[in-house]
Design goal:
Blueprint lengths: L1 E4 L14 E4 L2 E7 L2 E2 L4 E2 L4 H19 L6 E8 L5 H11 L6 E6 L9 E8 L1
Parallel strand pairs: 6-7
Antiparallel strand pairs: 1-2, 2-3, 3-8, 4-5, 6-8
Length: about 120
């Protein structure tokens, strides 16, 4: 069984994809960028501000699915500049304290809407 997850408490998809799909005991959340769901505008500021917004968006989508950040088993972080790794990591660590998920972090040439960071996750449902 496959269930589409959608919430107005996170940015609406900017393309032909779902915010998340719940299937076989997992929630697969699409990559989130620093869009404020209230305005649908990019959160201004540095990578710390954008990482915080991204993680709040991920949290809202997971909550809408009946899951949460504490159930994340895997994440992928896409950074525009690997020099921002330490700053991103500090903010990320505030959301994943006790038992952080497995993670990959990669530098990419460009991200949607020219943001500084994008993160996707897989969580237990």
């Amino acid at each position: 069984m496959r269930e589409i997850i959608s919430t107005k408490d996170a940015p609406q998809a900017i393309g032909p994809y779902s915010q998340a799909i719940k299937a076989n005991g997992f929630v697969f959340v699409s990559g989130q960028i620093a869009i404020d769901p209230a305005t649908q505008q990019i959160t201004p500021g540095d990578v710390a501000a954008q990482t915080d917004r991204v993680l709040r968006n991920l949290s809202e989508i997971l909550e809408a699915s009946g899951s949460g950040l504490g159930k994340v088993v895997r994440s992928t972080v896409f950074l525009k500049n690997m020099n921002d790794f330490g700053t991103m990591n500090t903010v990320y660590g505030k959301y994943f304290r006790a038992t952080p998920p497995a993670r990959s972090t990669v530098e990419v040439a460009r991200l949607p809407k020219d943001v500084l960071v994008e993160i996707d996750v897989i969580a237990l449902a």
